[in-house]
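tl;dr need the bound structure. longer version: we got a ligand (arginine) that a collaborator sent over and nobodys looked at where it sits. i said id run it. heres the input, straight from their email, havent touched it
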Amino acid sequence: GEMKMKKFLALILTLAMALSVTACGGSDDTADDTADGEGSGTEETADYASMTDDELKAAITTVEGGKLTVATSPDFAPYEFYALDENKEPQLAGFDMDLAQYIADYLGLELEVVTVDFDGVISELQTKSVDLGMAGLSPDEKRMGIMDFSDLYYMGGQSLNVKDNAEKYNSFEAINKPDVSVGAQVGSIQMDLANENSPEADIVGLPKVTDIISELLTGKMDAAYIETDVAKSYQKNYPELTLVMDVPYDAEGSAIGVCKGNEALLAGVNEAIAAAKEDGSLEKFIADAGELAAGEKYEGLLDAEGNVQN
Ligand code: ARG
């Protein structure tokens, strides 16, 4: 009868709400709205800033209990990349990874890193499959609907890069031609910069920054928009790469993408970042990563098991 159907629907709704809440912890806006009107979730009124560390830790929920699940895209030295260890085995490295471990320790959680291409970092956050995205993420306005952003933990910039044609391709005008191929990583703000500054060029989107580097090196690509410190890092290994000019961008700096609506986690992450700045850890992570990235690192693709593909 109708009553049974109503009960069934109510059950479905309850389940859906429970699921949307466990997805990344925190309050889900739609669930709140249907349940008890606008902005009335308890999470919204909790004052995380004035909690003790233990209270805050207890209030934090994650996609998998006891774990901090972090998505990254390790094609981005010195932020995140594969460095070869003494056995020539690729190991995840970079200051984002050290900071991820620091945050997990700070919050008393076990770190679990998920590696995907950069556009995957964004979709993992969007589907609330991970707690954090740490991938040199720019806190770009158009991402704010799908993730929350931590405080900035690093300041970088954007640039246009070429291989040995620095005199020819030295301005937006010079590269803004259909016969000039201009690269950018899929899903990145560099892709926006390419579209805004060189719309007439042959814009090539590639899933990995390391693919872009190798296409520049082999001459398949003429120019590429790359995060400045990443370009400089790869330049240490491949001096034939040249940074031709800085590119203006208005959401400069890196932030951590936090699963939307998880305000307790966001507060915890911001406290951990502040602590890492305060105690000198962050500075050390950045220095270590810079050194590691100048040494032997793995550039190519890894298969699902993390084995080197030749
Ligand atoms: N900062 C740029 C963005 O947020 C690029 C980040 C790319 N990160 C990476 N690990 N490949 O769009």
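gonna send this back to them w/ a short note. The CA atoms of residues 180 and 201 lie 6 Å apart.
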